[in-house]
Design goal:
single chain; 142 residues; 2 domains; 5-stranded mixed beta sheet; globular; 28% strand; alpha+beta; two-stranded antiparallel sheet
Length: 142
């Protein structure tokens, strides 16, 4: 439970009053978490566009326990990109253009078998939608 402390003394200008704990409702706490999640999504979006404006390639970045890797058309994942823990968290997503759409897959290892599973049944119209879907999928499964 989150507790915020409001000093009655500072509100009423009475310095000898004790602090009263304020306990926000579940709806208020839930609203704070939704706001934090939306801020993280905006952060991903702005990072991606900043790199594009600077003329660089958006390759990969780690956010909130997951590694998002952007691939060029025809580029292949290396063994190092798949397994190297120094690159970032082991929870990894790959985003790449496929035709005029974008595809997103996430890494899953079961019984020592590597699989890249899709996050949706259909591809995405652009890189921004793909990034948003990857992060939303991560939020859902973590």
């Amino acid at each position: 439970m989150v507790a915020l402390w409001i000093s009655v003394g500072s509100l009423l200008d009475v310095s000898d009053q004790p602090a009263i704990p304020y306990r926000p409702s579940a709806a208020e706490v839930s609203g704070l978490f939704v706001e934090l999640k939306n801020t993280a999504r905006k952060y991903c979006y702005y990072i991606q566009h900043w790199y594009r404006q600077e003329g660089g390639e958006m390759r990969s970045f780690s956010l909130n326990g997951t590694l998002l890797m952007f691939m060029e058309r025809g580029e292949k994942l290396t063994h190092d990109a798949i397994w190297n823990d120094r690159l970032g968290p082991d929870n990894r997503y790959v985003l790449w253009p496929r035709g005029k759409y974008w595809d997103v897959r996430f890494k899953q290892v079961k019984n020592n078998k590597l699989e890249w599973l899709p996050v949706a049944d259909k591809p995405f119209a652009n890189a921004d939608e793909a990034l948003t879907a990857a992060y939303a999928h991560w939020e859902k499964i973590k």
